[in-house]
Design goal:
It is built from four helices and no strands. The chain is mainly α. The chain has one domain. The protein starts with a helix and ends with a helix.
Length: about 80
């Protein structure tokens, strides 16, 4: 797989997870994007760690959301 193809697949996966965050949790596109890119999970997906990119978009959105909620608890 070429690097270009890999980057395109990662971008599509990220976009699908962000859309799932919007659908599942009623977030705006901007809110969902911010939450996704501030998550440790997004870094792991982009680095190809633990084959997370093979998981469903909704599952990964729920992981990102839980991570967000946990970080909110620590910030208050």
């Amino acid at each position: 797989m070429s690097n270009e193809t890999k980057l395109a697949l990662q971008a599509k996966k990220s976009a699908n997870i962000i859309k799932s965050l919007c659908d599942l949790y009623g977030l705006s596109l901007q809110e969902a994007t911010d939450i996704y890119y501030q998550s440790d999970t997004s870094v792991l997906i982009e680095e190809g760690i633990a084959d997370l990119q093979c998981r469903s978009d909704k599952y990964l959105a729920s992981i990102v959301w839980e991570e967000h909620l946990e970080s909110q608890k620590h910030n208050t």
